[in-house]
TrEMBL record:
Protein known as: UDP-N-acetylglucosamine 1-carboxyvinyltransferase
Annotated family: Belongs to the EPSP synthase family. MurA subfamily.
Gene3D superfamilies xref list: Enolpyruvate transferase domain (3.65.10.10)
Species per Swiss-Prot/TrEMBL record: Marininema halotolerans
Enzyme class label: transferase
Gene: murA
Principal subcellular localization: cytoplasm
């Protein structure tokens, strides 16, 4: 069984460039479907989620080619409006294809999307938004068919600031007739990145990053070359690893403005941070402190995607902290695994009480979702002894060769495939 074998206890040192953002690249790749032509999306990380998106695009008829970290897509050749069920089930982000396909092909047929097991993840807000734009939605036995001869601008209030629903509606609305206003929109940096991409294509979108996004429909778009923003969660994960191992690292290709709440918490633990240009220098401390209460929230709140990694870090700080999870109802599966490594964690209903210990110890642990996996890896780097992290397919969804990145920083980590070479 594939696993990371980590010999812990060695501080991380060195410099690493942060990969492009998965959660920007996925909707942007979907948005290329909006218009015929040859697009180039740059700084795309090599991840299994990106691979699934690529396979879906190819199944729809798109021609796609990787060149290093750039992807060239020829989107004139789409031949179907049905997304294959087997691929749809592999990744929740396949839902992003609805908006662009509806806009371009006037029809899209999907099956309910899959994704990380982090709680109930309905798509009602996506469907509500598309239907307010004029789409007819039919739900049958295991499929959802959306059709619209014409999409028209609408005033859409989201009950929750859903990242995906905001993005899907933005993409559907760019070529709709009239003006669309999304109220209570999500404000994540990836929404602003999608806005920049759409505007570069000739769309008229404003307000991303605020709770009100306004999309003025335009008749035509054109293909573009575009570079996605750096991944703030990968940067946060590596910064937490440096703090936790008492190391000192320099992360390049970072946008500080995107990382406010994560950096604030790292500083509260006693880690030392310095920013210069697009570089973040992080230095750990042998005496990290607890931080009191932390609550995850929509951006600019503390990101749920950093919650497991922060919990790993707080497990070895002096004193007690508490983390409440407010975005997903099933995102504490790493708790049991961290406890195997010696963490003192007491789960309550939607929160976990963390009693810091002097150190964790190595154990065999199971990654149950992407960020839980990342938390176990950084815990393993700081722990005494050897940690084996199983379930690497979860980690591969969001971290581009995490083992290589950590090796570059002096981490003792090896990807073990369990296969013995035959002579
Ligand atoms: N929700 C609904 N109905 C909907 C949509 C969402 O009730 O129609 C609820 C969800 O169940 C959840 C909350 O709204 O409780 C927020 O979900 P949101 O739609 O914002 O999340 P998402 O778009 O599915 C994106 C990221 C996630 C990240 C969340 C929150 C991508 C591809 N995924 O998911 O990233 O956790 O926003 O920030 O952008 C990750 O990278 O590890 C990851 C899970």
């Amino acid at each position: 069984m594939e696993q990371y074998v980590i010999k812990g206890g060695k501080p991380l040192y060195g410099t690493v460039r942060v990969q492009g953002a998965k959660n920007s690249a996925l909707p942007i790749l979907a948005a290329t479907l909006l218009v015929e032509g040859i697009h180039e999306i740059r700084d795309v990380p090599h991840l299994s989620d990106i691979d699934v998106m690529g396979r879906i695009l190819k199944a729809l008829g798109v021609r796609m080619r990787w060149d290093g970290n750039n992807i060239k897509l020829e989107t004139s050749t789409i031949k179907t409006s049905r997304i294959p069920e087997s691929l749809m089930r592999q990744m929740r982000s396949s839902i992003f294809l609805m908006g662009p396909m509806l806009s371009r092909l006037h029809e899209v047929i999907i099956t309910p999307p899959g994704g990380c097991a982090i709680g109930a993840r309905p798509i009602d807000l996506h469907l509500k938004g598309l239907s307010l734009l004029g789409a007819k939605i039919e739900e049958g036995d295991g499929f959802i068919r959306c059709t619209a001869t014409k999409l028209r601008g609408a005033d859409i209030h989201l009950d929750l600031p859903s990242v995906g629903a905001t993005e899907n509606i933005m993409m559907a609305a760019v070529r709709a007739e009239g003006i669309t206003v999304i109220r209570n929109a999500a404000r994540e940096p990836e929404i602003a990145d999608l806005e920049s991409f759409l505007n570069r294509m000739g769309a008229d979108v404003s307000g991303a990053g605020t709770p009100t996004v306004v999309i003025r429909g335009v008749p035509r778009l054109h293909s573009v070359s575009y570079e996605v923003i750096p991944d703030r969660i990968v940067a946060g994960t590596l910064a937490a690893a440096a703090a936790m191992t008492g190391g000192e690292i320099l992360l390049t290709h970072v946008v500080m403005d995107h990382m406010g709440s994560t950096l604030e918490l790292l500083e509260r633990t006693g880690a030392i941070l310095k920013f210069e240009g697009d570089s973040l220098w992080v230095k750990g401390s042998s005496q990290l402190k607890a931080v009191g209460n932390v609550v995850t929230g929509p951006y600019p709140g503390f990101p749920t995607d950093m919650q497991p990694q922060l919990m790993a870090l707080l497990s070895v700080t002096a004193g007690s902290s508490n983390i409440s999870e407010r975005i997903f109802d099933g995102r504490f599966k790493h708790v049991k695994e961290l406890v195997r490594m010696g963490a003192k964690l007491h789960p309550l209903k939607n929160s976990v009480e963390i009693e810091g210990v002097s150190h964790l110890h190595g154990a065999t642990v199971q990654a149950t979702d992407l960020r839980a996996g990342a938390a176990l890896v950084i815990a393993g780097l700081a722990a005494h002894g050897t940690t084996r992290v199983l379930g690497l397919h979860h980690i591969d969804r969001g971290y581009d060769h995490l083992d290589r990145t950590l090796l570059q920083l002096g981490g003792q980590i090896q990807r073990w495939s369990g296969k013995v070479a035959s002579c």
